[in-house]
Write a structure and sequence with these properties.
The protein is an alpha+beta fold and about 130 residues long. Helix content is about 15%, strand content about 60%. It contains one helix and six strands; from the N terminus they run H-E-E-E-E-E-E. The protein has one helix at about 5-25; strands at about 25-45, 50-70, 75-85, 95-105, 110-115, 120-125.
Length: about 130
């Protein structure tokens, strides 16, 4: 295997892991509601000889309802403050700037940054 194949394999594994984590719900709430219905009926019948027949029937019914609420995280925009020192020229002093990024597709995000010394650029990131 050459170096490009190894790097490509690592990128594929990282992206697969990130998309799996992104597709998982943030919160699952399950609700179970049990309701009992009791129905009582009384029937009285008068016979021709004058006697009464009373029939009492009771019906119990249990109604059970399940509900599932799945919450996924929404798109997030991030604003970061940057500060750093040049590794090659530390005497140049501190440089500062800002970075803003937002979700693009699933866990993949894109952004842009700018530094006070005039350096700027774009970024691509992945959320875990």
């Amino acid at each position: 295997m050459n170096k490009k194949q190894v790097i490509g394999g690592v990128v594929v594994v990282v992206l697969a892991f990130a998309f799996g984590r992104y597709s998982a719900p943030e919160k699952i709430k399950e609700v179970r509601v049990v309701d009992t219905v009791k129905d009582t009926r009384t029937i009285t019948i008068k016979k021709p000889d004058g006697t009464f027949i009373t029939d009492v029937s009771t019906h119990h019914e249990v109604l059970e309802t399940h509900a599932k609420e799945v919450t996924k995280s929404g798109s997030r925009t991030r604003l970061s403050i940057l500060a750093g020192v040049s590794v090659l020229r530390p005497a140049d002093g501190l440089s500062y700037g800002a970075h803003v990024s937002t979700g693009l597709l699933g866990p993949v995000s894109i952004g842009a940054f700018g530094m006070a010394n005039g350096v700027g650029g774009l970024s691509v990131g992945i959320d875990f």
